[in-house]
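Supplementary Note 3. Input sequence used for the single-chain structure prediction.
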Amino acid sequence: MTLSLPPVSTSDPDLDRPTTIDLARWPDVARRPPASALRTAVARTLLERAFTRLPLRITTSLVPRPAATTAQGVDTAPTLTLHDPDAFHQRIGADGLIGFGESYMAGEWDSDDLVGLLTVLARQVDDLVPAPLRRLRGAWVRSRPHLDRNSIDGARQNIHRHYDLSNELFALFLDPSLSYSSAVFDALPADGAGFTAAQHRKIDRLLDLAEVGPGTRLLEIGTGWGELALRAAARGARVHTITLSAEQRALATDRIAAAGHADRVTVELCDYRQVEGRYDAVISVEMIEAVGAEYWPAYFGALRRSLSPGGRIALQAITMPHERMLATARTHTWISKYVFPGGLIPSREAIAEHSAAAGLDIVHDTGYGQHYAETLRLWRERFLREHEAVAGLGFDQVFRRMWELYLAYSEAGFRARYLDVRQLLLTEASQPEATR
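The predicted structure, written as discrete structure tokens, is reproduced below.
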């Protein structure tokens, strides 16, 4: 069943907004959530007050000319254009930032600079709600669904919902190496022509950190589409790489065989908690974000258990400030609802605490946050250029707006330095002299 949306007056005839929404696929986008008049009014008031303090312009397409606030006299500020102001405020009144994202998916607002708009909001995230009202956060936001927990069965389902969408979809916006993590560029701003080289630079730095070379027994937790395993095998390593994505495993296996490395690489559908054996090196690239705080002890315990004496662990991890992590750890967000169910970005403090508890020392830690912003920009630009091909794969306008918002939202987090990405080296913890 699909719901037709009422026409909206707009000056942009090429605006890619849904005209119908599949109720079965997008129930909470097709239907506005129930929100009391009070909650809607509070949301409207809070947003209007917040926006007047920010370098943003708020307009509406329901009138012939832009009408609303230009904060601080800034003429080049990003513009948020409301196509349905009542729906926008009602959704936010009911579901906060989930409603903000669903309103975009429904086509109820747009921006002439989506990343710029979201960057402004990310920089001011702690000040959008007055301090006295922040204490009422628990009454306003939703808790994470119990079904999204990353138990062994739950983790497989959560990974399936994102990574098994379509290998063809990911190939449309990733570089030819099919690397779905931050690149490391030789210069910023990034040059799209050197995208694959930048992805290889990232992989090679991790392989170097772990001292992967001829004869190394390497465990990779999180195969992706196999590029790191390929480059490790080319160095002469023997690789055991694990994933929970059947789609990724199938394509990674094909790519490894085509490169002539099937004798050196084993790709297994396996949870990190079920890995057996010990390895000279362990590498895990942006996989900890899918583990969930409840299972971080199990994750670091598996890393430690898999490591041979004298071995090295190289991690690449997205991080966020510790206080923000604590504030959102149990919160159901738009990202956890639509993009990464069960996921949580850790803080550097959380990584240090849980690695130490597992008997591991962090001996190297380097950040590349602005490189991730550029990586996401290139992905987003490629995705938007390929909108017809994405539609040809069966992904509707609501999905395309969701994916655009996901990529722009993530890029904005790194632009605002609200997010970072770290490459870390972990080794077996040094024992005090008296206990050796």
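The longest helix spans residues 85-105. Residues 147-435 form a domain with the Rossmann fold fold (CATH 3.40.50.150).
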